[in-house]
Design a protein that fits this description.
Blueprint (H helix, E strand, L loop, with lengths): L2 H37 L9 H28 L4 H24 L6 H19 L11 H32 L4 H6 L5 H22 L3 H30 L6 H22 L8
Helix pairs in contact: 1-2, 1-4, 2-3, 2-8, 3-4, 3-8, 5-7, 5-8, 5-9, 7-8, 8-9
Length: 278
Amino acid sequence: MDTDQYRSEAAVERRGTSLFMASFGIALLVTLASLLGLLASWPYQKETENWLLQARGQDLGNLLAVVVLVWSATRIRTGSMGATQLWVGTLFYLLYAYIVYAFAVHFGRLFLVYVAILGSVFYTLIAGLSTRVRPAAYPHGAARAFAAWVLIGAGALFALLWLSELAPATISGQPPPSLEVAGLIVNPVHVIDLSLVLPGMIIIGVLALRGNQTGLFLTAPALVFSVLMGLSIIAAMALIVMSGDTSAFVPMAMVCLVVGASLAAAIAYWRQIPVHRS
């Protein structure tokens, strides 16, 4: 082994160790907050029943994200590109989730934990993306097109869903019914989705179709985000249905389709990502 190769592999291992330690710390905090949210009564004691159930559905999704985060962080230490993109997508999910917790859950004993998770995820994500590690080549053909169109379709579908509720309410000047049920002034999910996430998914899909390197790199993380977020929504809707509100059946079926398509697209895309880094 020559000196340059040895130094490169040592740098990958050091980077992977640092990201793993940061990810492990995030995983511990998320596990603590999520288990308390699920098992204790006090974290959501000031929330409406609907928002409490949504928060606990998110907690279930967060525990799944913890497993994915720790596994992918472990694999990053070997230089796996698939694991790197899985890790990035999981951090995107946690960043989104804890923005919502920090701004839409009443102040309580977990507030500083939410803030700590949010800050840790943000800076760990920045550190991971700043290394500019990229695959030697990107998927092409049907796998690329399928992944891109799933992102475009999911982004457009949820944008239309939110706008079908918000546009009439905006015209009438009356808050949408979902705000009253959740006990919110403004739903941060609407804000984040319509301003950042859904346009971002559509843009990534369009860039991937055009062969843009940034779009191609972000395609897999965006699909991972779509799967994890979709599963947390399904968990929340299942809890709502179990409480006696059957109105969640139809949207839950729609989210199941999005999750299935996103997972299939992610798997097809990953199969064409070379193991070696560029």
